[in-house]
Amino acid sequence: MKALLVIDVQNGIVNFSDFTKELSLMEEVIKDFKERNLPVIFIRHMEDNEEDPLYRNSVGSELHSSLKDYAEYIIEKHTPSSFYKTELSNLLEKLEVDHLFITGFNTEFCCMFTAIAAYDRGYEVTFIENATGTTNSEDTYEMPGLDIKDFVGTVLHWSGAIEVLDYDEYVEEYKEKK
């Protein structure tokens, strides 16, 4: 069975910049999964440091209003991997999931780490590159011209282990084959 992971779509991240396009693509994938009665699992990153935008008891840690009503399941995590010391593996086993689709934030951390961890656990993984977003930029990494989403997508694709698609490719490959 297929399942969708929607990673860290929380106020403390989404309110950082204009992610209208990314959120719209995430919502389209979510709607497709819902129409096919496939599980949609939201992941929430929680920090214990009160200064962090994703501090456990803050508004920043809450799921963003644009997508939170779609959350069937919510898994809390404390590291970039959605699997490390969480209940995600148990939930996926219970739901008999063998293929995970990855969307969410931050592309180069939580989305990438989760995709790799899923592959390491034997899941087929599809990373929907333009349905991820990041609060970082070429300036963050001091790498002029860096397109973070494209770079991460290329690295994952070249690994030969993880399928990387843009939303349009996802539609062609999966949505039309209901």
UniProtKB/TrEMBL annotation:
The keyword Membrane does not apply. GO terms for molecular function: hydrolase activity. It comes from the Bacteria. It holds the Pfam family Isochorismatase. Keywords: Hydrolase. SUPFAM superfamilies: Isochorismatase-like hydrolases. InterPro entries: Isochorismatase-like_dom, Isochorismatase-like_hydrls, Isochorismatase-like_sf. Residues 3-142 form the Isochorismatase-like domain. Transmembrane segments: none annotated. Belongs to the isochorismatase family. This is Isochorismatase family protein. It comes from Fredinandcohnia quinoae. The lineage of its organism: Bacteria, Bacillati, Bacillota, Bacilli, Bacillales.
